[in-house]
Every structure is written in C-alpha cells, then in structure tokens.
Specification:
The chain is of the alpha/beta class. The protein contains 13 helices and 13 strands.
C-alpha cells in the first residue's frame, strides 16, 4: 500500500461506461474504499449484475442518489454525469469540505460564457467554477495538488493537448497552422442506445461528425492558447470508428525552423520527463490504439516532414482510461498526496 491512507470514494453515474471503469479501477486501488455507487437506472441491483466482469470483485448494491448521504460518507466524489448535472453535486460536496472529480464538462472552462455558448446550459455555480482546476496532470500537476474540484478533461482534448504541449510551450510551431484529425472508438458515445452507434450503422464504416463545431473544440483551444501564450484557433475534425475503445489523434503543424526527428523527440522526452503515463516513442515508431488499450498511457509518435516544413504528431490513448476514468483516479491521487501512479501502474492488454 502507498502509505496507510484510506480514501472513501463515491461514484455518481456508476453504471455508464466511464463510471464502470472508475469502479473497476477504484475497486483494486490500494488506498481506496468504495463507499457508494449511484445510478438512476439500476438502483437496488448488485453492481456485478450490471457489469458481470466484476463478479466477486465488487459486491456493492447500486443506490439512488442521496446527495447529503454521499457527501457525508465520502472523502471524494466522482461525477460521471451528462453536462449540466454536476453543479448541484459540486455545491454540496464543496459545502461539506470534501473533494470532487468531475468527468463532465461543467467545470472545464475558465469562462462560463464559453461553456454556456457551446453546451446550451446555464452555469449555476460560477463561483465554484472559478475555483476548479483543469485536471490534466501533465500540465497542471501543481494546481491539482491543492484543488477541491478537479475538472477532468475530455477524451479528445487529452490526446490533443498532450500531443501539442511541448511544441507550443517552446514556441516551435506556427499557432495558425494547427489541424487535428481524431478518431475514436464507439464507447466514447456512452452506453445509452442511439441510432448513430447501432452496430449496423458503425460496423464496416468510418465517418466524421460535428465537423467544425464539436464541443471539445473550445476546451482544446483554451488549453493550447495558455500553453502558447497567445489566443489561437484550431481545425478539429473527430471521426467515429468501428472499435470499442481508443483514440488516435493525428495533428499537423508548421514548424518555425528546421529540426531533426531526434531533436523534436528529445524535446518531448525532456518535457514529459516527470510524467509516468506519457510514453514518447523512438523516431520511426508510431503509436496505435491497441498499444494503450486498458492502460492510462498516452503514446506519442513524431514525424518531421522536411518537404512541407510540418511536424506530424500522433497521439494514442484509451478514451475510457487516460481519456476519462484513469485520469480521474490520477487526479485523485495527486489531490490526496499519493504517487500519481497508485492503482494505475498496470500496462494495457494485447491483443
């Protein structure tokens, strides 16, 4: 055990895909005791009946949400809810002096007007929003340590921001040239039934969606602008691919100068030297979603295209883990003074 600290954790929205991954990871965490799992759809059912792969690992019964009970019993509350639903939870958790890790979008934006514009929801807790920390540990580790509310990043932004951070922080890329092509597995759409994620609609097909208007766009631009020290806009196109999980982002940017693959790779390795979950691959080796499946890793590969003067950055994550639940646990570890790898050290699964 990483010390003798015991953290009592509750998960709201435990029976969605990200909630279930949270429960799986937390159930094996050496410093965590699960205190409550809430759901609207399966209250009264043993959790393992909803997710049989956790039979004999999680024997808790799903509960309806009783916010006062949850905030009283837990040291940290994870919210895996649709946007707009975490604000009242945050208010009660904060009032009781507990910590919150929100996997939704409610606290990701520094400017609530941007959130309200893109998500079409009024923000009821702007004061708490001002206190929230954007929970990307590799960029905001020090701020997360003292945070009461960690706003877990979106899955696409995680892959993109980690892919571009060293270039922008070191002013090596033309900020007006950034094009992002991202492909995600179907689990990113959640567990609810939908025609667009029906087997016959997804299988043997790949399609772009929300081109130029995906809600993760302003989140990406907020964080990249902060890294670059200037306001920037990106072209971001997400795609749905016929696989269960994973994101591969291919990012193009024009370089400000001539650099060898070894120089760019060295820069990335130096930037992420203290980040255990970012793996910068050797020159000539490119990431794949299969290599990070089931892990909290982000694999980054780099190609310098001398002919066009561009760098091509490829970033792969598991959208349910580094893109959601694993990163949420990483944030919790930092907030409670644990090594951030605790409970997340395992590699992925293959094939």
């Amino acid at each position: 055990m990483a010390g003798d600290k015991v953290i009592k954790a509750g998960v709201i929205g435990a029976t969605g895909y990200t909630g279930a991954e949270l429960v799986r990871i937390l159930s094996a965490h050496p410093n965590v005791r699960l205190a409550a799992l809430t759901t609207q759809s399966y209250a009264g059912m043993p959790f393992w009946e909803v997710y049989p792969h956790l039979y004999r690992h999680v024997d808790m019964v799903c509960r309806e949400l009783d916010l006062a009970y949850l905030a009283d019993k837990c040291d940290v509350v994870f919210t895996a809810l649709p946007h707009g639903h975490s604000m009242p939870v945050a208010a009660e958790v904060h009032r009781r002096g507990k910590r919150l890790v929100d996997l939704g979008a409610d606290f990701r934006f520094k400017d609530v007007a941007v959130y309200e514009k893109w998500y079409k929801v009024d923000h009821s807790e702007p004061g708490l929003n001002d206190q929230a920390v954007y929970g990307l540990p590799e960029i905001h580790r020090e701020e997360i340590k003292g945070a009461r509310i960690a706003a877990n990043p979106g899955c696409y932004p995680t892959s993109v921001i980690l892919g571009l951070a060293p270039l922008l922080k070191n002013r090596l890329a033309d900020t007006g040239s950034i094009i992002i092509d991202s492909k995600s597995g179907v689990s990113g759409a959640g567990r609810n039934l939908s025609l667009t994620t029906h087997y016959c609609e997804v299988n043997e097909s790949i399609r772009a969606y929300n081109v130029g208007k995906h809600r993760h766009t302003p989140e990406i631009e907020q964080e990249l602008s902060a890294l670059a020290g200037e306001s920037l806009a990106v072209s971001f196109t997400p795609h749905l691919t016929p696989m269960n999980r994973g994101i591969l982002s291919t990012i193009y940017a024009r370089l400000k100068g001539s650099f060898s693959p070894e120089e760019i790779t060295g820069l990335y390795r130096e930037f992420y030297a203290g980040s255990p979950f970012v793996r910068v691959l050797p020159p000539g080796v490119l990431p794949a979603t299969k290599s990070v499946c089931g892990s909290n890793h982000c694999d980054i590969g780099l190609v310098v295209d001398d002919r066009t003067g561009r760098v091509v950055v490829l970033s792969a994550i598991d959208n349910l883990i580094k893109g959601a639940s694993g990163q949420a646990v990483q944030n919790m570890n930092i907030m409670f003074g644990l090594p951030e790898e605790t409970g997340l050290e395992r590699p992925g699964i293959y094939p």
